[in-house]
Design brief:
Shape: globular
Number of helices: 2
Structural class: alpha+beta
Largest sheet: 6 strands, mixed
Oligomer: single chain
Length: 126
């Protein structure tokens, strides 16, 4: 892959993650699942699971309102995969901090699009 194609793919991966996040915080499950390459591996530090298409659900805390300060950084890519770091702060309905989140997303480049293949995340309650 030449430098121009690499830059294009990095930009596309950044855009993909931003779109995924916008659908996630708007609770649009139908759109969110389009950003995954099924099955998807999740690791939370406590649990490791492989989730098949159709089994995924957005299970967020009942007090969750939104996520602020979410940032994604493409750490590296090659011809077929990429690694993205993300972090942000989840906010409760009363405006207080629910938790801070940090995640590493593994992504696959398929048919000129990026798809999330796995997520390893940490949550820290404040």
């Amino acid at each position: 892959m030449n430098d121009v194609e690499r830059a294009r793919r990095v930009d596309l991966l950044s855009k993909t993650m931003d779109e995924y996040f916008e659908y996630f915080i708007s609770n649009n499950k139908e759109k969110v699942i389009e950003y995954f390459d099924w099955p998807v591996t999740f690791f939370t530090g406590d649990n490791f699971s492989i989730i098949k298409d159709g089994e995924w659900a957005q299970n967020v805390d009942k007090d969750y309102q939104t996520t602020i300060g979410m940032q994604f950084t493409v750490l590296d890519i090659n011809d077929s995969s990429g690694i993205v770091w993300g972090s942000g702060t989840r906010i409760k309905k009363d405006g207080s901090i629910l938790e801070t989140i940090t995640g590493i997303y593994t992504c696959k480049y398929l048919d000129n699009n990026w798809k999330i293949k796995g997520i390893a995340g940490l949550r820290k309650k404040d």
